[in-house]
Amino acid sequence: MKALIKILNELHPEVNFEAETALVDGGILDSLDIVTLITEINQEYDVSIPAQEITPENFNSVGAIMRLIKKIDEA
Asked: Which end of the chain has the lower number of beta carbons within 10 A, N or C?
């Protein structure tokens, strides 16, 4: 999780990512941020996020993103 928070902090250092639960719905992360985030996640966690998993629900919080990474890693 620390690696994910580091990636997110590089995108928006002003946000408390551990507490935020509306990263996409609240407009904190935009489409370019998501593309960057996916690229960094793919490299850091050695996973490939399928297009059908790129939904606001999967990127609204650190917890949601970690659940997605775990789900993909276990598949």
From this structure: C
Q: Is residue 64 a contact partner of residue 71, using CB atoms and an 8 Å limit?
A: no
User: What does the alpha-carbon distance between residue 11 and residue 29 come to, in Å, rounded to a whole number?
Assistant: 9
Query: Does 1.10.1200.10 match the CATH number of domain 2-74?
Result: yes
CA 61 from chain centre, in angstroms, equals: 7
Give the residue ranges of DSSP H helices in the chain. Answer: 2-11, 31-45, 56-59, 62-74
What phi and psi, each to the nearest 5 degrees, are found at residue 13? -65, -15
Name the stretches of the chain with pLDDT < 50.
none
